[in-house]
Amino acid sequence: MPKYLCLQRSFGGGNAERPSPAKMQEMYAQFGAWQQKFKQNLVDMGGRLGEGRLTTADPAPDGPFVEIKELVGGYMIVSAESLDQAIDVARACPGLVGPGSGVEVIEIRTP
Amino acid sequence: MSEPRQLAEHFFRHEYGRLVAMLTRRTGAQHIEAVEDAVQAALMSALESWTVAGVPDNPTAWLYRVARNGLWDDLRQRTRHRRLMEENATEVIAALEQGPEPSLADEVQDDLLRMLFVCCDDAIPAESQIVLALKVLCGFEVREIAARLFTSEANVYKRLGRARERLRARPPSTDEFTSEQYASRLAGVRTILYLIFTEGYLSSHADTAIRRELCAEAIRLTDILASHPIGQSPETSALLALLHLHSARLTARQDGAGGLLLLEEQDRGLWDAGEIEVGLSWLAKSASGDVFTRYHAEAAIAAEHCLAPTFHETRWDKVVEYYALLEQVAPSALHRLNRAVAVAELHGPARGLAVLDGFHPPTWLAGSYMWMAVLADLHRRSGDVDAASGYREMACQLAPTAAVKQVLVRRLRIDRGSPH
How far is B136 from B11, CA to CA, in rounded Å? Predict the structure, then answer.
């Protein structure tokens, strides 16, 4: 099955309200249910992205660069029959798609 | 990929309470807001990390480390930005650095107990104490507290603000309470636990799960109190007995559609036998001294109801006796009203009315549906149809919720010519 790279994107302006502990418990359960449901598709749960820097042939590129983590919060890799199916898997992930955030799904081409 | 592990029910809420208690003990209550922020952030990290990497072997220790490190960074940054030496931040930072990780379950219980006494500071108004306890010990958010106490979020913020103001004003100290301080706050602690319970038990919230949750929280905290030398006393045992005996009947108080059921309408088979047993054993323990408190009287009344095989087989003479004792130890017009109801069951409605004869209830009771409903019921049963229908109408008008009104309409129906 083809693999897809999922990038968590945030556009800002989302609802930044902090979830209550009871809400977190709910989210944890929902996430677990999602993982169970798509066990076959979740190749690599990936993680959040931290500090990064762009390096180029130019020894000292002029800044400022937008740091990559401001655009992409985290990544994961899923396998699916098609781009549409990969999108379905990613969309079903609790908390990934919502106000001010979304997920970009990109096919990983292997020779 | 490891499969996500099942976490205990209310894991996040209860860890919130435990972590806030553990860290507050080390920083002092004046830093409680920074503590709460750090705990919130640690739980968020757990949510992110555990769902991917799995739950660590000792989740509490993991959370404690993350929360402590976050708090440590936060306090250090603040001392750098502003000179907050008077807030004893450097001292606190050192304590956080050096303090060993709490590993013993006993110590966590100690911290929770201590936090309960921090909340019940007599300089904080009782209504703020409840909100503070629900927030920091039970892990409820402002919106959740507002929904449970039937009040606005703004009101919860206000009450919380008052409590925090007082905690900030405390002299910076992480000193232990003295045994005198513990002793002087103990009665207040019991009152708050009782109030948290009644908020759940008497609530007309349609969702039984939500009502049960507050009752369960009150029992959880009272258990901690009752199992610690600081809180152990016949009075605490009586309170715990009362909570369990009431809790046993909680589910049976509602019908399938969420409507309220009167005691005589309840299916006694639904009463929780396990809870009754636990309640009775605490009641036995409560009889060990020579003190008799309102909790003893209330628990004894609840026990009579729990032990009666049917409504009509209730030992009403005992119930009347305990209500009379309750009136002596905790005078309240409501207790007198309840005694009148019990006397009516024992000796008939006329004798019940006689208990209220010439009694002038305070305005809060005189203007309540309860007062009107009891008068309507007792008059109806003594055949005074005119008086009954007048009181009945007023009771229905004053009913606070649709569920209560439904009960009143059903119970106070007047069948012409055939009074009960």
Answer: 14
DSSP assignment of chain A: --EEEEEEEE-S-S--PPPPHHHHHHHHHHHHHHHHHTTTTEEEEEEE--------SSSS--SPPPPHHHHEEEEEEEE-SSHHHHHHHHHHSTTTSBTTEEEEEEEE---
Q: B208 vs B315, which has greater pLDDT? A: B315
- Facing B47 at nearest CB: one of A28, A35, A47: A28
**Is the model's pTM score more than 0.95?**
no
* Distance from the first to the final alpha carbon of chain A: 13
pLDDT for res B420? 47
The CATH number covering residue A36 comes to 3.30.70
Nearest beta carbon to residue A48 from set B40, B48, B140: B48
Q: How many domains does chain A have?
A: 1
What is the Cα–Cα distance from B394 to B83, expressed in whole angstroms? Answer: 63
How many angstroms separate the CA atoms of B115 and B107, rounded?
12
Q: Domain range spanning residue A59?
A: 3-108
Nearest residue on chain B to A29, alpha-carbon basis:
B6
> In the predicted model, is pLDDT for residue A34 greater than 80?
yes
Which of A38-42, B181-185, B254-258, B373-377 has the weakest average pLDDT?
B254-258
Nearest CA in chain A to B6: A29
Q: Dihedral of the CA atoms B109, B112, B116, B121 (nearest 10)?
A: 120
